[in-house]
Design brief:
Elements (H helix, E strand, L loop, with lengths): L3 H10 L4 E5 L2 E5 H17 L7 E5 L5 H11 L3 E4 L6 H10 L4 E4 L1 H11 L4 E4 L3 H5 L17 E8 L5 E7 H15 L6 E4 L6 H11 L4 E3 L7 H10 L3 E5 L1 H9 L5 H5 L1 E7 L5 H11 L4 E7 L2 E8 L1 H4 L7 H5 L4 E2 L3 E6 L12 E7 L5 E2 L3 H7 E2 L2 E10 L5 E6 L4 E3 L2 E3 L1 H8 L5 E11 L3 E10 L6 H9 L10 E5 L12 H7 L8
Parallel strand pairs: 1-10, 3-4, 3-5, 5-6, 9-10, 9-11, 11-12, 12-13, 25-26
Antiparallel strand pairs: 1-2, 7-8, 8-18, 13-14, 14-15, 16-17, 17-20, 19-20, 20-21, 22-23, 24-25
Helix pairs in contact: 2-3, 4-5, 7-8, 10-12
The structure holds adenosine monophosphate.
Length: about 500
């Protein structure tokens, strides 16, 4: 089954329902959205793209996002959406990794991508005449036949190796994901979804459930958090639901511009993607009330779908386990099994800390061209998340740490290794280690410990060196220069010791 048939059926039954809106303006109904997708699908064929071929998407939030996604599926292609905040070189790497011949881009990214791709992949701006002309070749009237196990989408996630890996989602994976959300969310009834977060990630995945129910996808530009735009959308449409990382929830709480009228038009805030601290959650409850909050825990390898804490499970402040529940990520989502595994793969006891493991149809088929990484991630049918947690006797999961060294800053993943690899290309850097440090605004920020050779570079010089290769949000907040890094008997850098060291006086800056 091609997953696009779900959206085609919804559109056929509701042709006049608004499908896509931009801020406060309805743009396309389901009839127009599907017509655009079907004609674009025919245009994709003229580019030489055949079923199974990958199509890179480097697009900041735009009405065309779902048009391209649907067109790709109608044509039997495998879209590979990229986070628009990545460095062009990182996007070029992913496009090359999956062998994409074409990359659709938005105007903010096009020129830098043209030089980063250097002819290896053809970049087509979605506002160009070239893109418009793709709609002039008739249409593909039905979905290209696909097997449930055929790849439907590549979700690029930076691995512990530092290089992004493409998690392969099949037509079955995506179908299971959207059905699980329809079953659990208690939303997608008469609410609209507002995309203020990048559509290439959780927000776009949630949008598929709204497309399946022919609801309105209201799109905001990616970029700065803008309460004014949120208010305009809420007043134009309402009730609105949206995905937000904890950093954005905190900003919504603090924003006076999000007043009672706007709050009254919010149906659900699906928050997750990074740890939500208890104090922040209590403030969010004070502003929005529990009935609007829905905690979501997932990862790119099982998108949005591991556990959840919906309003009815928050409990009441008088419950003995109230705080424990609030601090948890809730219980297993519909259609997946969740367990806490010991290192040997056996199931941990109640309240024992181990690695969170997941089983079910939402699991990726594996990583694109990375059999070893796939075997490491999926063992005996269980996806090992790299997150450490415990489960209480009622099945509530509380995350305690990440076994991987990933840093989550403002909801975006930063892998220390990718920063370390670039730092090590500086001629005066002999050794380095990057770890995360708590940050009240972003949750975490990277800091770097550097051992130099020859002349010690200034932090500014290292920053400039990094920015030539990596996205801005990955730059370390501080550099600490050491004469040597703490190491284990096996010569491995002991990041735990660095964490303990923090920024105390033994560190020279
Ligand atoms: P990604 O693959 O980009 O979606 O990142 C997934 C990782 O983000 C997970 O493995 C967790 O470490 C973290 N994460 C996602 N949701 C939550 C949450 N609700 N609470 C804490 N950490 C989370």
């Amino acid at each position: 089954m091609n997953v696009v048939t779900v959206f085609m059926a919804a559109a056929r039954a509701n042709p006049d329902a608004t499908a896509i809106s931009w801020i406060d303006r309805p743009l396309w109904n389901y009839r127009s959205l599907m017509e655009r997708a079907a004609t674009l699908a025919a245009g994709l064929r003229t580019l030489g793209l055949e079923p199974g071929d990958r199509l890179a998407m480097a697009m900041s939030n735009t009405p065309a996002y779902f048009e391209v996604l649907l067109a790709a599926w109608i044509a039997g292609l495998v879209p590979a959406p990229q986070n628009c905040r990545l460095h062009p070189a990182e996007i070029a790497f992913a496009a090359g990794d999956c062998g994409a011949k074409i990359c659709f881009s938005t105007e903010d990214l096009t020129s830098s991508l043209l030089s980063a791709m250097a002819g290896t992949c053809r970049v087509i701006d979605i506002d160009s005449a070239e893109f418009a002309a793709l709609h002039g070749h008739g249409e593909i009237s039905g979905a290209t036949v696909r097997k449930p196990t055929d790849p439907a989408l590549l979700f690029y996630t930076s691995g512990t190796t530092g290089k992004p890996k493409g998690a392969i989602h099949t037509h079955r994976t995506l179908g299971a994901m959207l059905v699980s959300f329809l079953a659990d969310s208690g939303a997608v009834v008469d609410d609209h979804i507002l995309h203020m977060a990048p559509m290439s990630h959780a927000s776009g995945f949630l949008g598929l459930s709204y497309l399946a129910r022919a609801r309105n996808n209201v799109i905001l530009p990616t970029g700065a958090f803008d309460p004014d735009l949120i208010q305009r959308a809420a007043l134009a449409f309402g009730p609105l639901s949206f995905f937000a990382v904890p950093t954005i929830v905190r900003r919504l709480v603090l924003s006076d511009a999000i007043g009672a009228e706007t709050v009254g038009r919010i149906h659900r805030i699906f928050f997750g993607g990074a740890p939500m601290y208890l104090e922040d959650l209590k403030q969010a409850i004070a502003k929005f009330g529990t009935e609007r909050l829905w905690h979501l825990y997932g990862q790119g390898e099982t998108p949005n779908t591991i556990t959840y804490l919906p309003p009815r499970l928050f409990g009441s402040p008088n419950d003995a386990d109230y705080e424990e529940r609030l601090g948890s990520v809730g219980i297993a989502r519909s259609g997946v099994a969740v367990r806490i595994a010991r290192e040997d793969g056996s199931e941990a006891a109640v309240d024992e800390v181990g690695e969170v493991a997941v089983q079910g149809d939402t699991l990726m088929g594996g990583y694109w061209n990375r059999p070893e990484a796939t075997d490491a991630a999926i063992r005996q049918g269980w996806l090992y998340t790299g997150d450490l947690g415990r489960m209480n006797e009622k099945g509530y999961v509380t995350l305690v740490d990440r076994s991987k060294d990933m840093i989550i800053s403002g909801g975006s993943n930063i892998y220390p290794r990718e920063i370390e690899e670039v730092l090590l290309t500086h001629p005066n850097v002999a050794e380095c280690a990057v770890i995360g440090t708590p940050d009240p605004e972003w949750g975490e920020r990277p800091i770097a410990y550097v051992v130099c050779i020859g002349e010690t570079p200034t932090p500014e010089a290292l920053q400039a060196h990094l920015l030539a290769h990596l996205a801005r949000y990955k730059r370390p907040q501080h550099y600490y220069f050491l004469s040597e890094l703490p190491k284990s008997a096996y010569g491995k850098v002991l990041k735990t010791s660095l964490r303990g060291m923090g920024t105390d006086r033994s560190v020279t800056t």
